[in-house]
Amino acid sequence: MTKTIVTGNFKGGVGKTTNAVMIAYTLAKQGKKTLLVDLDPQANATDLLFLTMKNVLGVKPTFQSTLEVALESGDLKPALVDVMDNLQMLPSYEDLQDYEKYLFSTFDDDYSQDSYFSKLLAKIKDNYDYVILDVPPQLNKYTDSALVACDYVIIVLQTQQRSLSGAKTYTEHLLQIKEDYKLNLELLGVLPVLLQNGNELDLDILSDALDFFGKPNMFEIQIKQMARLKRFDRTGITNSHRVIHDRRVHAIYAEVVKEIETRIKVFEDAKE
């Protein structure tokens, strides 16, 4: 059964997009059929994967229509891009900024607007083991569309106060939309990122997050600051076994994916 996951936080610049892409990339490398959906008009996830295709994989991105055109037509298939084995993407483009306007002009109530994307995704998601969605760091129809469509949420927490505040607000909204729409939506966990070893502020933020979210909701794996992740934004995602920095990054995300799968199993076992 397909698992659909949103990475989120109401604070920008916390590594949300990077982690969405790296999780999707890692799942695909492990042989899982994966779809990455870029529901952010800023298109950072799209830029990273297109750069990877061109610079690393030597493949030119091709698609029949933009995601916005596909959304308005009611068929997502023409917007799909083959990134690599086991990984497809629904890429963002500049016209995606018109999606909210389309929803407001087409549907009269919030639920119809927020559930429209979910209905379109349902037509194709059975083709995948995982669907990973990246959304803007704001409360808007992109975020709500993704939440209605997903099974699980990973909150990406950079160890700084504004990120913690954004994570708390995101959680409150998550619980509210779950209640309003009666969604089978779960917080998979809070993933701490961009930590510096032994930094006092990092430790303070982690302590506050632990108090607020509770230990069971905190990922055990933590993503340290790694220059290689920043470099990927310029070069695309490299994955050379001969380069230690590449090996370290991909080893860490293999652990992230392992914990994701373990956490999902806990939820699924509880439903049986």
UniProtKB/TrEMBL annotation:
This is ATPase involved in chromosome partitioning. It holds the Pfam family AAA_31. SUPFAM superfamilies: P-loop containing nucleoside triphosphate hydrolases. Residues 3-186 form the AAA domain. It comes from the Bacteria. InterPro entries: AAA_dom, DNA_Partitioning_ATPase, P-loop_NTPase.
